[in-house]
Design a protein that fits this description.
The complex is a heterodimer.
Chain A: E1 4-15, E2 18-29, E3 33-37, H1 44-52, E4 59-64, E5 67-68, H2 74-80, E6 82-85, H3 97-107, H4 123-135, H5 151-164, E7 169-173, H6 181-194, E8 199-203, H7 207-213, E9 216-221, E10 224-229, H8 231-236, H9 238-251
Parallel strand pairs in A: 3-8, 3-9, 6-7, 7-8
Antiparallel strand pairs in A: 1-2, 1-4, 4-5, 9-10
Chain B: H1 7-29, H2 32-57, H3 66-81, H4 87-109, H5 115-134, E1 144-145, H6 161-184, H7 186-203, H8 208-234, E2 236-237, H9 244-257, H10 264-282, H11 286-300, H12 304-310
Antiparallel strand pairs in B: 1-2
Helix pairs in contact in B: 1-2, 2-6, 2-8, 2-9, 2-10, 3-4, 3-5, 3-8, 4-5, 4-8, 6-7, 7-8, 9-10, 10-11
Classes of the chains: A alpha/beta, B mainly alpha.
The structure holds adenosine-5'-diphosphate and magnesium ion.
Chain lengths: 253, 315
């Protein structure tokens, strides 16, 4: 595919006896919002971790914008424009929200072997950081220490930090996890605004959000792709209904 | 730059004031021991400030930091023994040797964390300790007297106790200022970010290892300088300079003063050494009192003495 941004080819990962990724092949073209769904333990987080570079696959290739990144470390992939958010929030808890995002800006503003100027007084770091906070609705919370923010705000901050790295592609691991309905709606709105502007791989449990946002959906079960296609096709797919959607409906009563 | 009057700033100003007045006070009372004690405090404060840079700000708990005191001290002592007395040669060499050692230790230890990091830094320090014991030409186990302090060609005479004290104090204040600039710079933000959440640092695009390594080397160099000062102060070097208990003392100073504040270790050094001195006048078992006291600070005042005063850990 000419305009493919992310190409995953036969990626496999096993943890002892568990096959977390089973020969996964998937292509995400530029500009697409691609959702990955699947029951707990299906291997969604493991897939994202391999794309981001935290976990090395046992087999397979990952290409980003035509470049083979399979062996590149996490920070290099980030520099290429692959940004991830974490399912379990991973933030700088003892820093302010603005500091958190400013660090993400700094990571992409040249090297940091700068020893003299006060980084907290550099507009070229602080201004883009404020803009990223504003995008996710945290403008008013910039100076709050992150450990004092609510869970929902942590989730928003995760996105702001990913955005602040001026990425070309976002890897979002359950951005609405643990959120209340209002916060969740706010997050969906943010994602809708980002859609089209960035290529997004979205892992999400909220089916309403997934079907509202996704251009294409891939269904993962036991590390294997059982279906991949447009939302309508996925909704109609009998195997998917049985393996996942039915179970979800059952689980949510 | 205006400085607000906070309890912390008042404390810092007070301590600097006291340190600046020590020689005057000592001269008035004819108390030369006091100058000697405070010279030692100031020198070890430099070492504690350097440890705090990696431990308090970078989260790298080195249990071998006294090795740099030894390397800096032995650089001065060995050169003096071989007839090289110029401080312009001795001190840069002390700092360079420390940097070299830090690069080696850092390169091998910084990919590990937690207890492993502590053990590797300790192991390297022990190695240097035993190497020093093996240096028969330079006193081996017993150590060696340095007959001539570092010479600075008439710029300053280190045999003058007051001049030497003020030189140490000036170096301490310069070190504090440099560390203060450093921790608030972009570089410092990376170091602190890596302490807070290294995984996230890498995820947002920082190759953290090279920054931590350089920080580790900076700290080693500064402590190496303290070692050069200490050798001049005692006119003596011995493996005891880098005994592991001294590494422990430096950790205690950094923690006692409040980790993650630039000035904290000075207060920690002051508190520990003055207390040690006072207790040694009363009992020979001062450690029995100091140990539990230290434990109490760690358990109940996580920000150290600074935290007791300010009630926070940011600065
Ligand atoms: N680091 C690991 N070590 C061992 N097993 C793991 C590890 N990470 C994930 N797994 C296993 O891999 C499978 C997929 O996990 P995960 O990717 O977290 O699924 P999901 O995000 O879809 O819920 C699970 O069975 C999980 O227990
Ligand atoms: Mg998961």
């Amino acid at each position: 595919m000419a305009d493919a941004l992310l190409e995953i080819e036969g990626v496999s990962k096993r943890f002892g006896g568990v096959i977390a990724s089973d020969a996964i092949s998937l292509t995400v073209p530029k500009g697409e919002l691609h959702a990955v769904i699947g029951p707990n333990g299906a291997g969604k987080t493991t897939l994202i971790a391999q794309l981001a570079g935290e976990i090395t696959p046992n087999a397979g290739r990952i290409r980003f914008d035509g470049l083979d990144v399979t062996a590149l470390p996490v920070d290099r992939r980030s520099q290429l424009g692959l940004a991830r958010s974490f399912q379990i929030t991973s933030l700088f808890l003892d820093f302010t929200a603005l500091d958190n995002v400013a660090l993400a800006v700094q990571a992409h503003a040249g090297h940091s072997f700068r020893f003299w100027r006060n980084a907290r007084r550099e507009p070229q770091l602080r201004d883009p950081a404020r803009a990223a906070l504003a995008r996710v609705g945290l403008a008013g919370r910039a100076d709050v220490i992150v450990s004092k923010l609510s869970h929902g705000e942590h989730r928003q901050l995760e996105i702001a930090m990913a955005l602040a790295t001026s990425p070309r592609m976002l890897l979002l691991d359950e951005p609405t996890a643990g959120m209340g309905p209002e916060e969740s709606a706010r997050m969906v709105k943010t994602l809708r605004e980002l859609k089209g502007e960035l290529t997004i791989l979205l892992i999400e449990h909220d089916m309403e959000a997934v079907f509202a946002l996704a251009d294409r959906i891939t269904v993962l079960v036991y590390g294997r792709i059982i279906a991949s296609g447009a939302p309508e096709a996925i909704r109609a797919n009998a195997e998917v209904r049985e393996a996942y959607l039915g179970e979800q409906e059952a689980a949510h009563g | 730059m205006s400085v607000p009057l906070t309890p912390r700033n008042a404390l810092v100003a007070g301590v600097i004031g006291i340190l600046a007045l020590v020689p005057i006070y000592a001269a008035a009372g004819g108390n030369t021991f006091m100058i000697s004690l405070f010279t030692r405090i100031v020198i070890l404060a430099i070492a504690a400030v350097s440890l705090n840079l990696i431990m308090g700000f970078g989260g790298m708990v080195s249990f071998g930091h006294a090795a740099y005191l030894g390397i800096g001290g032995y650089a001065v002592g060995i050169l003096a023994k071989e007839g090289v007395n110029s401080g312009f040669l001795q001190w840069p060499l002390a700092v360079a040797a420390s940097a070299l050692f830090a690069v080696t230790v850092g390169a091998l230890s910084l990919r590990t964390r937690g207890v492993y990091f502590i053990m590797i830094t300790l192991a390297f320090a022990q190695m240097v300790y035993y190497v020093a014991i093996g240096l028969d030409r330079y006193g081996g186990d017993d150590g060696m007297t340095i007959y001539k302090r570092s010479q600075f060609g008439g710029v300053i005479d280190l045999s003058n106790k007051t001049a030497f004290y003020y030189l140490c104090l000036a170096l301490l204040l310069a070190a504090i200022y440099l560390v203060w600039r450093l921790v608030h710079s972009r570089f410092g933000m990376v170091i602190q970010g890596a302490r807070s959440n290294e995984r996230r640092m890498r995820a947002i695009g920082f190759p953290t290892y090279r920054y931590k390594l350089l920080c580790f080397v900076f700290a080693g160099m500064l402590c190496g300088l303290a070692g050069a000062l200490l050798a001049n102060h005692t006119d003596f070097i011995s493996p005891a300079l880098m005994h592991w208990t001294r590494s422990g003392d430096l950790i205690v100073m950094a923690v006692l003063g409040g980790m993650g504040t630039v000035f904290g270790p000075v207060i920690g050094a002051l508190a520990l050494l003055v207390l040690e001195e006072a207790l040694s006048g009363i009992t020979q078992y001062s450690q029995i009192i100091l140990g539990p006291l230290f434990l109490l600070v760690v358990l109940f005042a996580r920000g150290g003495i600074d935290g007791l005063l300010v009630g926070g850990r940011h600065g």
